[in-house]
Amino acid sequence: MATPDPLANSHTTPPPPISSRTLHIAGILTTVYGLEELSEASKSISCLWLLHPRLATKQTMQAVAATCISDWNRRRSSDRTVGLIAVAFDQRNHGSREVTPLANEAWRSGNPTHAQDMFSVINGTALDTSLLIDHLGSYIFHGGDGPVIEQNLVMGISLGGHAAWQVFFNEPRVSAAVIIIGCPDYMRVMTDRARLSKLRSYTKADGAEFLGSTDFPNALVASVKKWDPRGILFGTSDIQPYPSESEQKYLRDILDAKIKGKKVLVCSGGADKLVPYHCAEPFMGFLKNATSGWYKDGDVYVEDIVYPGVGHAYSSGMIKDTTRFVSDILAGSSTKASKI
């Protein structure tokens, strides 16, 4: 299947101008947006980590940075003690870090290790985000009385959305996430892609033997169980939308350790064929049932929006909801009720 550009024509009007500064941190060219727009009154800094789509580069996230930062600065024009910056970097094997172009392609484009290649980039991006959270502050704020980064948010699109799910679950310093056309269930989305690609490893047993096959090896299954949200909670077992009391206790311990008190906005295209919502739906059903029911005391906010007629794209509606969600998080205001 062809890979559409999710950011093509996403911003129908030019985004506002935004300052940028590119730093070399741990071998990664890291672009920081919004430093010059910070008010002198800023004491607390929130950082929005921007994870780009597959086959894209960090530069493609500039409009997202500009839109979110300008919205926050307008909203907080009378009180600028909380400042917002955004950060983008090339994911592994992309842009300035590209090593093997074929490894970024899908099965249908002649890449036999598509599942391994994509998951390792997703996982690497999540790990790089944590690494850069460790070190960014020392590169941009040197004075002892200067502002400090006190809050981290992550926003990812497509491949970056898959990575943002991993950051949301595995990085305790990230308190909120915006997931654009990304999936929390790597095994399910890749099994569906194998079906559409008519891989022999899928067709010979109608998918029953795909996990553990040469196209999705057991070592990859083990990595997914360690890092992927669905894998962390359920492994290769079926997702239980209404777990038993004993299952709830087991799941509660994981949720407490991973996402207690966090907030997430999930935006999916109703007509998306590359990352269809039906691949995320079982996990999202479980998460919404848990956070509104037996795990309500975990104080996890979940907003799950499916945009009718939208394909694999960062649509105008998604832009509006992303901007609103980020500013609401910074303002500390209560976001509106979940849109199911």
UniProtKB/TrEMBL annotation:
Pfam families the record matches: Abhydrolase_6
Domain spans labelled AB hydrolase-1: 85-313
SUPFAM superfamilies xrefs: alpha/beta-Hydrolases
Superkingdom: Eukaryota
UniProt protein name: AB hydrolase-1 domain-containing protein
Lineage: Eukaryota, Fungi, Dikarya, Ascomycota, Pezizomycotina
